Amino acid sequence: MTAAQSQQRAIEETPIAAGEEARFFRARRQHDLECLTARFRTHAYAPHSHDTFAIGVIEAGCEAYTVRGERHYARSGDVVLVNPGEVHDGAPLGAGYAYRMSYPDPALIQAIAADLAERRPGGTVHFAASRVPDPIIAARFAAAHRALEGRAGALEGDERMHLALAAIIARHAGVAPAAREGREGGPVARALAFLDGHYGEDVDLARLAAVAGLPRTRLIRAVRRETGLTPHAWLTDRRIRAARRRLAAGEPPAEVAAACGFCDQSHLNRAFKARLGVTPGAFRAG
């Protein structure tokens, strides 16, 4: 049984009340990462455990839960960290809570830790604390979670969740990032050239890292250091430049969105207006 299935069964055994909601989804590229977003006012979990980690954030309200024999009260801005096999429960306190959870397979966490440190970490990754107040990382994780829920493009979803989990592992599992801050001109040039030549495709982070010949974490940092943009931001900028040329030539926005790698026309609209101040339709008409 997967983590999401066990969590779903726990919800089904105590049906959620009117006004409550729970949604499961899966991120295929992150080792089939299973995710949950929920809002509970009365629903309480019976004690249970997972074969995976449970990593998430509280977005509103307060959740009370017991793990390792200690009672915790997680509030907005807190990161919740449960190791595989740890028995825990969960219940709303007061008016309830809203949260976003992920259930990373240990292999995924180990892979991100190895990428972060650029070596195999000694032993398995373990979180010593079950709740940590960390609003900055909590916001980063929530944004990554939303991107995956909204079926973001491969590079955006990969980049956001990889960086969020890497930051959590570095800060709260004691895995130190590799101390390499030198110039990476050659690998960055290869990565950018690849994005420039494949902007219409749904490029993922693993493929881009292989082209550059760098670990994923170092690639993201190197591109940002060299250009001021992350790989996903560079790809979006490249797509907008291509879209601008096509729109100026009179192509319809829907066709431009498809040709330039955007999910749909509304995705193009948002990205285009954020950078040029007008919608693609208004730009084409002008």
* Main β sheet profile: 8 strands, antiparallel
DSSP strand content: 15-25%
**Helix coverage percent of residues?**
40-55%
The assigned structural class equals alpha+beta
Q: How many helices?
A: 11
Distance between the termini: 56 Å
Total count of domains: 2
Name of the level-1 CATH class of the largest domain: Mainly Beta
Q: What is the C-alpha radius of gyration, as a whole number of Å?
A: 21 Å
Written account of the structure:
By secondary structure, the protein is of the alpha+beta class. It is built from eleven helices and eight strands. The mean pLDDT is 91. The protein has two domains: 170 residues, Jelly Rolls; 105 residues, Homeodomain-like (Arc Repressor Mutant, subunit A, Orthogonal Bundle), CATH 1.10.10.60. Strands 1, 2, 3, 4, 5, 6, 7 and 8 form an eight-stranded antiparallel sheet that branches.
Structure described in brief:
Helices cover 47% and strands 22% of the residues. By secondary structure, it is α+β, with helices and mostly antiparallel strands. It folds into two domains: 3-172, Jelly Rolls, CATH 2.60.120; 182-286, Homeodomain-like (Arc Repressor Mutant, subunit A, Orthogonal Bundle), CATH 1.10.10.
Task: Provide key terms for this protein.
Arc Repressor Mutant, subunit A; 11 helices; alpha+beta; 286 residues; Jelly Rolls; single chain
